[in-house]
Structure formats: C-alpha cells, structure tokens
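Methods — Computational structure assignment.
A single polypeptide chain was analysed. Its primary sequence is given first, followed by the predicted tertiary structure written as structure tokens.
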Amino acid sequence: MERDVSQRWAKRENLALLTDYYQLTMMGGYWKTGRKDLEACFNYTFRELPPHNGFAITAGLEQLLDLVENLHFTEQDLDYLSGLGAFDDAFLDYLRDFRTTCSIEAVPEGTVIFPHEPILQVEGPLIEAQLLETAVLNTLNYQTLIATKAARIRSACGSDTLVEFGLRRAHGPDGGLSGSRAAYIGGADSTSNMLAGKVFGIPVTGTHAHSWVMSFENELDAFRAYAACYDQPILLVDTYDTLTSGLPNALTVFKELRAAGRPVRPAIRLDSGDLSRLSKAAYRMFNEAGFPDLLIIASNELDEDLIADLKRQGARVNSWGVGTHLITSSDHPALGGIYKLVAVRENEKAWEPRIKLSSNPAKMTDPGRKRLVRYYDGAGRPLADLIRLDDEAPDVIDPGQPAKPVPFAERHDLSFLRAVWDATRCESLLQPVMKDGVRLDPSPSLKEIRDRASQQVAALPEELRRLRNPEIYAVGLSPRLAAEKVRLIHQVPGVLPAEPGGPSESGGL
C-alpha cells in the first residue's frame, strides 16, 4: 500500500521540466553536434558536512528513481520549449519520444556517508545522463540534509520520542512532504504532516492549538471538551499561565477521567516558557496526584543543542516536537552536493577518465568510474572507506586475518592506514538499482530504510556522533585512483609540468 501511494504521488505530474535551462541547451548542443550517444559516467557526491557533523545519512533515492522511471516530455512541454525559440524542431521531435535508458548504482538509502564519496553513479548516453543532473541534486541534496539533521536531533533526544512538527515552516508543500520522509529516515518517530502519513505510512501525531482553548469561555471547559472528543487527549497547557492555570486545569481533567474509569495516560504539551522549570513542576504536580507516567511533550523552536542542554538541566520532558530547525536545517540550509562527469567512452571503446580542476583543492573531482568500499572491525563498526577505480581487483579480507592496508591514501593518509589495519571484512556500498532505465528490485519499505539508518548510526564510534567537534572519519583513495588523478592533473596544459616520461598531450581529458 505504501509503495503504491508513493508511486501515485511521484506520478502526480510530469517533472521533465523540473530542470535548469542549461540542461536543455546542452542537450540540444549534444544532439546538434552528434554527441548525444557518447557514453558518459557521472558521480553524485558532496564536498563537506554541515557544521559539527561527523557523518551524513543518504536519503531521497526512492523519489529520484520514481522521477527517472517516469521521465518524459508532454506535448505541453514541447509547446513551451518551442515557444522559447531556442530549440530546433528536429530536437523537439527527439524529445517527444524521450525515455531514459541510463543505468544507476547507488549507496542504499539510510546509509551513513562522508564527503567526497561517490553516492550515486549514473551511466548512459551523455544527452540523457546530463538531463538527470538537476533532478539528482534537487532530490538527494535536500533529503540527505534533513535526514542528517534528524539523526543529530535524534541523538540529542536519546530514548525520548521525537516528533517532526515542521510542515508549517517547510519550504513549500513538496519541502514539507519530502522533508517529513527524510526526517523519519533520520530518526523521527512520527510527524504532524497528514499527507506524509498517507503517502509514506509515517505514524502521525499531534495535540491542539491555542485557538482551541481560546474558542471556549474558559480553559477548563476547553480541556474537558477536548478530552471528551478523543481517547488519548494531549492538552496544551500554556495558553494563559502554565503554572497557575494550564497545569491545574489539565490535572483536574485527568483526575476526572480516572474517576470515570477511563484508562488514559495523562499527556500535556509545553510550548513556551522555561521548559526545564515547567516540566519539573508538571512532573511533580502529577506525580503527587498519583500520575507517575505523565507524558510531557515540549515544543517551541527546539534544536539538538537546546534539547541536549535541557536534558543536562534535568528537564522531565520525554517527547520532543521539533519543527522549524529540523525541516529547514536552519543552521546549514543546503547540502553542497555536486554531479560531475567522471568518464566517457565512444563506440564501446575503453572508458576515458575526466577530471575537473580548481584552484581550490576541495573542488577537484576524482576521475573515473568507481567503487566505494567500507572496512569494518570484528564488532561491525566502520573503520574507514576506500574509493577505488571500477576495474581494480575486488577487495577481499579473510575473516580473522589482519587487513592488508593500501600503501597510500590521498586523504587522511595516516589515519586511513591505521583504521584499515584492524579490518576483518569490507563491503562495496554502490549497488545497482536501475539498468537501462528499468528498476532492478523492489524498493525497501520506509521503515526498513529508517531501521538501516538507525543501525548505521548506532554502529559508529561515539567520537563521530558527538554534537561538537566530532572526529573526522577516514576516507582514502586507492593508489591507482590517486595516481590517475595526478596523471590527469599533469596532462592539463599550463597547470603543471608533464610528469617525467609521461604523456604531454591532454587527450585523457
């Protein structure tokens, strides 16, 4: 049911024109110059983590595959493009029958990932793979960002319940919907977003607004009426004065329900004021009245730092409603994901690597078709990741035997060598998900993706999960990939002298 509803949402409208203008101009140029069928390989990665994060969690793959699978241009799309006056009629005729035949490999959703790693690898005709750029970045950047933020907030909450309350502050309807999905992957237990509940099967929850209380003559009548409507009422207690009005009136109602024989767990929400002081007062008041299991939901511009601070103060909150700072990732509202050409080939010849150079080393790309390998210790904890070329020999580690460390890793050299020394197994993270434009396997359920994310985060060393100054995870390049990168840098005219005895032409670029 969840999968069917999700697919219907993805197909709610054609999204071929949800792209940048230059994608269409490049496509038109590839078509006019006879390069549309040149085979190309693109990688999606990101350059840096949000501040104070030790890891990210990939999300959004399901929606991306839905989009790619259904990508086509309608007659209305073609009429619009024709009206721009920039495209040949023959090119528009080509778009009329456009369907992607690309193959895609991806790191599974809910996987812990790190900067510079190939998270998605797209192969196919250049003209098709180029069109996917904007869709890949739009879909994966946002959901990965929100899943990562949710995991951070989840860590601050500990075993308490985390509710995503962000819809009203989200960046539009789709930001609210996909954000709720990503937040659930990252660790939210439920959402207030009803459409997300319907489309993705996420548990929904909520209380009532101040307007409910204000619409009655007095607060006690409002609470009694709400409790009469619902089996498990959660009462918002700060409309007037929390200590002298809200809490006493809520306690009165729950005492009345108990006396009437209704088995209701008392539950309140605090949405303003000193949440630590008020939650302690609420717990004390209800505990003295024989309600030791009071559910206290806190909201009001919460984030992971405030939650962690409140818990250090001994706040008796056991459920956290987080909205604005989660759904917008307010301290870092965009993930700098990139989608770059890394290899091409013509007429099924050997693949030729491509590289983008920059005066900023962080913006240089790693060339070639790749594998992403993760090393683990005997307890299943990740130790380090290795990026290697696709045609390198598979990594094999004999259980119980020390891993043979690669002699050179371009990034985090010494830390990488130390990390992989204790590895007992390794895993290739890029998995085939689409072949020639057709999805290969049924997608996992959203709960399975969420469970994967939870397990992945739990397996990380505590040093990577802390909220401030996390340790840097070791990610290295294989010796061959590092050497290939250096070779291509030397081949670019005017950048560096050619390597002694090496090629001086730029044909590899």
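Note: Residues 126-157 form the longest helix (32 residues).
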